[in-house]
């Protein structure tokens, strides 16, 4: 992570945790941080950091003339419909900051696996930045074969511990497709520039999608589920989908509403909640879940 970005994320994190601060108070905290290099943040440097934060992050620092302190304000929607990139960068900053202590106390920490394919993110972002294509060897799970691919990158996303690339194959026969970064080998950039032929944003492409799934045929629709007991709090604090809305609350249950395209992964997520969740509508989604439960029961008919 570049020093300027690291210091800007430090300032954001500091002001989020401690609230409004003078530059003197900021420097007093800065002296005890892991990124301190022996010199205080000068007023002119602080102004440059403020400008960089306002231009690149969904927040800004404002000087309050009445209190003489610097206040942090969030600018929702700065990155489009969600600020997940900012949250991801802030999380990366926290992880980087705890590296030394984490190694020291590694016997006290248990983590899930880091997203796979992350080692290929940098070169793909470089291709996007330079308007270049990428060439790679790609392993197909379905065909169980390795095929040489020439791709025009569109955008990246993470889902369930995997990095995915949405890209356009050079022959254009199949339009835009999704590729798992972990199955790419020997990635190189093309010499010539290769611009995408479709003018579409990541929000438009994944509109109503569940995870990394995308459908050109189906349109998002409203799905309503009923969640029972203590599972309500779990769903409330860990939404099943970013479109989740709690539309009805009862002491024993809550009804949640979603706007998405139903798919296998969505059904799998609903079944994860076992008997604590019921699909209300549409009827065909209710029938899909019912059929899956009946199939499962067949394994226990002994």
UniProtKB/TrEMBL annotation:
PROSITE patterns: WYL. It comes from the Bacteria. Residues 223-297 form the WCX domain. It holds the Pfam family WYL. Residues 120-188 form the WYL domain. This is WYL domain-containing protein. It comes from Xylanibacter ruminicola (Prevotella ruminicola).
